[in-house]
Every structure is written in C-alpha cells, then in structure tokens.
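Onboarding guide, step 5: your first structure request.
Type a short instruction followed by the sequence, for example:

Predict the 3D structure of this protein.
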Amino acid sequence: MAADINRVTITGRLTRDPDMRQTAAGDPVCRLRVAVNGRGRDEAGEWTDRPAFFDVVAFGRGGEAAGSHLSKGRRVGVDGRLSWREWEDADGARRQAVEVVASEVLFLDSRPSGAGSAAEAAGEPGGGDDIPF
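The system replies with structure tokens like these:
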C-alpha cells in the first residue's frame, strides 16, 4: 500500500495583517489568511474569478519572519501540509477547521516604499522579499 500524500502549495494575497502569538511554551506562531483566485464559468457561461480563502499557520523563525515582513495585500506563496483540528467553543459548540501548516512561505512582491525595517535603515541587508524560511 502506498503512503498517503499530504502536501499543498498555494499562491495568493493576504486578506489581513499577520496575527502573531506564542504557544504555551513561548514559541512564535503566525496566522495568515490567503485569498487564492480561480476561474470558472458562471450560470450564464461567462468566465469569472472565484476566490478561495485559506487559513495558514507558520511556526518558529518562519512565523516570526512572516509576522515581521508581511502585511495585508502582499502576495505570498505557501508550501505545507493540511491539518484538521477540532475544538469546543465558549458556547459549547463543536467547531472544526482545516488549515495549511506552512513549511515554507515565500514573499512574492516587494515591500511598499517607505516600509523598510530598522535593520535596513542601519544599512544591513534584508527586507525579506522573495526569501523563503
């Protein structure tokens, strides 16, 4: 029997700024929401864009880099695996979600002008553009 494959690669734009948090152990976690456009025909037979929205979570140094360098509207590429989770919300209702756990996030467009980091201002290389983690 062949092994199962769990791999996903998406390219799209962030729908909101990254959400940086920490695990109970203090490890950084960055949550992203990525919109990916697809094309399909509507009821009239016309081609239209159909967006799909994906929740992405990046851990460790990669999560820190994404949280520091990305913002709403930026183009990203994400390579990772799908993860399903289930929990009970505050009202006692069971909730479920499928998210992409990133192994790599690529910053696909340049940073808007005037958005340089303190390291760049000090003359250090960086910016994070097109750099995978």
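Each response can be followed by summary notes, for example: Helices lie at 60-69, 118-121.
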